[in-house]
Design brief:
The chain is an alpha+beta fold. It is built from 13 helices and twelve strands. The chain has two domains: 171 residues, no CATH class; 194 residues, no CATH class.
Length: 435
């Protein structure tokens, strides 16, 4: 508010000071045409127009890059189907569910109850929900793999899931099988890995039957975990997040106290929520039921910061374009008024209206072109600050810069064309009589 008031006072005082310093002799002599003060005023106005055009182009270039970046981001395939998915979290109280056997049995009961609900086509649960704001990562070892010197050891995301979680999520099974009732605590430990892990450690081998472990490879009591399936890589922390390898372990072999459920429905997921809550309360009315959302909403929230930056810079860009257009219109209108005698003489001597139109347009477009050139130079420097906010877009993307320059050129042409048209309607008799 303070800056706004100061700006108003500053730009209100400047014309008053300029008027106070006006030389009355020059002003009265032939209407003051050609006075140094008038020339200074014209130069200042033209300079402001060039500056606003340059600023508008710089902001538009940044906004254009963010729009293109955002469009590419939301076009990223998350690796699963986020539509028609209801998500929520259930945590088991530690006192009532004090061991893995009780916890596994509770989650199996909740899962089977939810699967029986009308409108629930697939139900699954995981310890780490994609786009849920949580993660679980750690190091592991791959049988027969030795990390080259200077490179990190295998590291990736670890998730404990119910048998139907991956089908409910919509993650494609590329090879092998899903978890089943045979994967119990007493059975050999198994894991489903993503294609990213296969590409890194078994690019030329069949991954089914390969083994990983969380023990040191020199440990005599090493416990191997066998790969039984391969699924596609899924986005987790964001559509633009770093790709880490992913491993899924069956709930029946690793007990946990908290899981996030996903329920796939044929219609609106939120319509199923009251039925789901009632079913969970029927099992245990004291179970905490939290973080309710649709998967589409979670994915959309992950793009929130980029969307905000794009909208904010886009708003400033539109304001800058508006200021540049108004400035051009004002300067050209003023010039047409000041040159009404000259335009009248030209018409009286036989100049065609298109000649006057071209004269005014050329004068205005020269200012615009200078502003665009200055703006392109400024944009090439300023957009480097946006590098961390861009996704799969160069900060000097030529297509964006060209389109923005053409857009600004078109808007400016319209702002100049209106006073230029008025110049062609000058009545030479009235213009000359005024002298």
């Amino acid at each position: 508010m303070g800056i706004s008031v100061l700006t108003g006072l500053l730009f209100g005082i400047m014309p008053a000071l300029q008027l106070a310093r006006t030389d009355l002799h020059d002003t009265l002599k032939e209407g003051g045409r050609g006075s140094s003060g008038d020339r200074r005023g014209i130069a200042i106005r033209r300079g402001l127009v060039v500056a606003t055009v340059a600023l508008a182009l710089t902001l538009l270039a940044g906004a254009g890059l963010l729009v293109k970046s955002f469009a590419r981001l939301v076009g990223v395939d998350p690796g699963f189907k986020p539509d028609h998915l209801l998500t929520f979290n259930i945590s088991l109280p530690q006192l009532r569910y004090s061991n893995d056997t009780l916890r596994i049995a509770a989650f199996e009961r909740i899962t089977s109850t939810l699967e029986a609900l009308p409108g629930a086509t697939k139900v699954g649960a995981t310890t780490v929900l994609p786009f849920g704001g949580q993660w679980s990562t750690g190091g592991f070892s791959v049988e027969g793999y030795q990390a080259p010197k200077g490179t990190p050891s295998p590291w990736g995301d670890q998730r404990i899931v119910t048998p139907n979680f991956l089908p409910a999520l919509g993650a494609p099974l590329l090879k092998g099988r899903q978890f089943g009732p045979e994967d119990r605590a007493s059975s050999p430990r198994v894991v489903i890995v993503d294609q990213e892990l296969v590409n890194r450690y078994w690019p030329k081998d069949d991954p089914i039957g390969k083994r990983i472990t969380f023990n040191d490879l020199t440990d005599s009591t090493i416990q191997w975990i066998t790969v039984v399936g391969v699924v596609g890589h899924t986005s987790h922390e964001g559509l633009d997040a770093q790709r880490r390898v992913q491993m899924y372990f069956p709930l029946q072999q690793v007990g946990v106290s908290s899981m996030s459920y996903v329920i796939r429905t044929p219609g609106d997921p939120n319509a199923l929520l009251p039925t789901v809550k009632a079913a969970v309360r029927a099992i245990d009315p004291d179970l905490p039921f939290s973080r309710v959302s649709t998967m589409e909403a979670l994915v959309e929230q992950s793009t929130g910061p980029r969307r905000f930056s794009m909208l904010l810079l886009g708003l400033f860009s539109l304001l800058a374009v508006g200021l540049a257009s108004i400035g051009l219109y004002g300067v050209m209108s003023y010039n047409v008024t000041q040159r009404s005698r000259e335009l009248g003489v030209r018409l009286a001597l036989g100049a065609a209206t298109r000649d006057l139109l071209g004269l005014v347009l050329r004068q205005g477009m020269r200012l615009v072109l200078v502003g665009i050139v200055v703006g392109l130079g400024a944009a090439l420097v300023a957009t480097r600050l946006l590098r961390s906010m861009l996704f799969n877009v160069s900060s000097t993307d030529p297509v964006t810069f060209i389109l923005i320059a053409l857009l600004l050129l078109g808007v400016s042409l319209l702002a100049i064309w209106i006073p230029a048209r008025r110049a062609t309607k000058v009545d030479p008799i009235i213009a000359l009589r005024a002298e």
